[in-house]
Structures are given as C-alpha cells and as structure tokens.
Design brief:
Layout lengths: L3 E2 L2 E7 L10 H11 L3 E6 L6 H16 L9 E7 L31 E2 L7 H10 L4 H11 L6 H18 L26 H14 L2 E2 L13 H43 L4 E7 L1 H12 L8 E7 L33 E5 L4 H10 L19 H4 L6 E3 L14 E5 L20 H10 L6
Parallel strand pairs: 2-4, 3-4, 3-7, 5-6, 7-8, 8-9, 9-11, 10-11
Antiparallel strand pairs: 1-2
Helix pairs in contact: 2-11, 3-4, 4-5, 5-7, 6-7, 7-8, 7-9
Amino acid sequence: MSESIGDKPLWIVSFDKDGAGAGGVDALIAGVREREVSDLMLFSHGWNNDRRKAVDLYQRWFGKLDALPRAGSRRIGYVGVIWPSERWSDESDDGAPLADAPGGAAGAEAREAVAAGSPALDADTLRDLKTTFPDGEQQLDRIAELLATDEPDKDTIDELFDQMREFSIATFPGHTDSEGPDDADVGVPPMLSAENEPAEVFREFAMQLRKSGVDLDSEEGGAAGFGDVFKKVLHGAKEALRAATYWQMKNRAGVVGERGLGPLLGRLHGEFPGLRLNLIGHSFGARVVSYALNGIPGEQVSPVKSVTLLQGAFSSFSFADPLPFDRNRRGGLAGRAGRVDGPVSVCFSQHDGALSNFYPLASKVARDNAAGAHGDNPWTAMGAVGAFDVPQVDLRPVGTEYPFATGQLINIDASATVANGRAPFGAHSDIVHDSLAWVAVKAGRLDTP
C-alpha cells in the first residue's frame, strides 16, 4: 500500500453518492486483523473529490496525531474516507497551508481585498459540477449561459433563480438537517424558497462578498465602471449557485454517512467486537461521520468511542431536541450523541468565512420571521459557532485535559488557532494543527492504557 502514516498504513475506503460501493473495505478488515489494531481513527474530508488531495490531507493531519504522546499499548490504525464532493476551482485545497497567510488570530482580522473575477463559470468548474451532479446537467448549462450575460436584466436574474431551484430539485439526494421550510424537504435550499425575491437573495450574497473582502469594483475583477446594479447581482448569483451546490453536497454527506459509513462501522464491530472506533470529520465530512451514527445497525453498545468535528458544515441545531425556534420539531441527530461511548467534540472558529458568512445565507428564508430571540437568522453552522446550547471551552495545548463526558457534546473554540485563510472563505480549511489532533487523542483516550 502506497499511502502510510509513519510506519503504519493508511487504509482508504470509498463510497459513491448513495453510500454504496465501499471500495477498500476488504483490505481494511484484513489489515486490522493482521496488525491486531486496537484503535481505528476514521477521517472524512469535506468539499474535495480529488483523491490525491484528500489523501494528502489525511497524511498531514494523521501525521500530527501520530507524533503526539499516547499509551504504548495502543495499536492505532488510520482510515481515510473518500466520497464524491466538489471543490470549486477558485478555492484553496482542504487543509492546504497558505504560504502568504499571516500567523495567529491577528492575521485573520485585516486582509487585502481580493478581486472578484468574472461572475461567469470557468470551463473547469462547469465540467466538474456536471460530473458531480449529472442529474442537474441541463440546468447547469443554462445557469452558465445566464451568468455570462453581458447586459443582465431582471428577467436574467429571475431565470437564474428558477434554474437554481430546478437544479436543486433534480439533484436532491433526500437528506436534510430539518432546519428549513417545507421546500427543503424536496431539496430546495431555504434561500431559494419561492417566497423570496430573486434579486434580493442574490444582492445579499453580493453584499456578503464585499464584506468578506472581495472587491466587486476592481478592474482586475473585470467589473470596473459598470453602472447596472444587475451586473453586481450576477456576482451574488454565482455565490448563490456555489451555496446551492454545497447545500446538495451537505445533504449527500448525510446519505453517505447513514447508508455507507454507518453500516461499515457495524461490520467492523461485528468482525472485531473489541475494536475502538474514533470518527473525525472536516466540513461536510463532519456531517458524514455524524450521520454515520444514524446508520450503525442494531442497538448494541456503540463501537464509536469519540467523534471529533472540525469546522463542521452543517446545522448547529442538528443535535437539538426540540429545535429552539420550533418546539414541535427536533434536529436530524437528536439523541444520537448517546450512540457515542465517549464525547462529541465540536471544534469551531469565528474566522471561518465560509460558515460564518455564506452558510447562513444559504440556510435562511429572506423574509423568515421565526428567528425571534435567536437573532436575524437562526440558521448557523457548527463550524462557525458550535453546537446549540452545549458547554464550551477554548482549544487547549497538547498535554492538557478536557472535561469530556460520555455521550455528551462539547464546543471547543479554536478561533485563536484556526485563523488563517484568504477572503472570502477565511480559515475554513486551516485545520492541520497539533492542538486539534490532541483533541482526538484525548477524546479517544489514546493516551491511557
């Protein structure tokens, strides 16, 4: 096997968009048996469908963990999960270090503006999106044509909105967070609710781009001198399309976790009853490993000893029961922390622009009046603010203790460490740190005999 972590193999298991076709499982089971593994660490990537880049992330992150103090009696094995998601071509790689990013929290506060570029889809992005969402190919072609319009008008904007709704319905995998209006049940993100005004939705995304450090007026961005408000709105429409594709990838992550990874965990437990399973997920991968708790078969004592969520790109209310803004509903993972024979650690950062700024826009109805005491927008992501209504601590140095409890969630504010990244998505992928790996070591009790 070519992939490894130090002197240990890195086993790769893969799933299709429906959670089927788990390649690499036989090799994993044979390897666990041969090496008499006691603790298996399983990591799921986020929006990145490039196997090479996902494996690079696993090698760097597990490399940090492998070098940390732990009990000598622990025979650790490493698993990387591969599933079909998509990173747009204008974004940095998952977890990739940014050579020009200033260090620490101070470096996350003031950044130079980034040119907006063209609102049109480049050929690579369009091709990749059509590969990832083949059921939405027709809508994507038309959306690409509309985003490339030289003189957009209200009709252009209205059709873009309608095409995004149709794309969302055509590509819906059938798995939501129970956080949106009725449309969400058929795959339409709340931002694309029929009650919303298209131009207002796209304008909100354009305004957020500007607030996040994107220069919509830069000549380098190709937008200099235009006076037509609809031209700027096209930039917002492109971000709304990004959000719509991510909404569907988020839903897909739940499917992969529940139908693919969950049953695999059950199989591993059946083959090796004493094997301790520890789950780690970044971004949408945090949703993969969380929803795997739904898919573990039977009611036996859970083989999962810890779950570590890094910048989780799914609802803060997923574990809530009831939902604070609708007492008649509960989160899609309500009660599932009880399926973990250890803690669920929710690591978050205020410097995650993707989740702090754009996730809420995708997850709300513009005229929603249900926020009440929860602010203007009740839809927030775990990786931005943590899980709703659970205890919170700051990220701690290697070698220190955490107040972990079995079957309980804990929020870990990593803002002082997860701080580097370019506008507009910020520190979303700044996750390769010793202190984050130490969370998984402590949560999985890898430092105890």
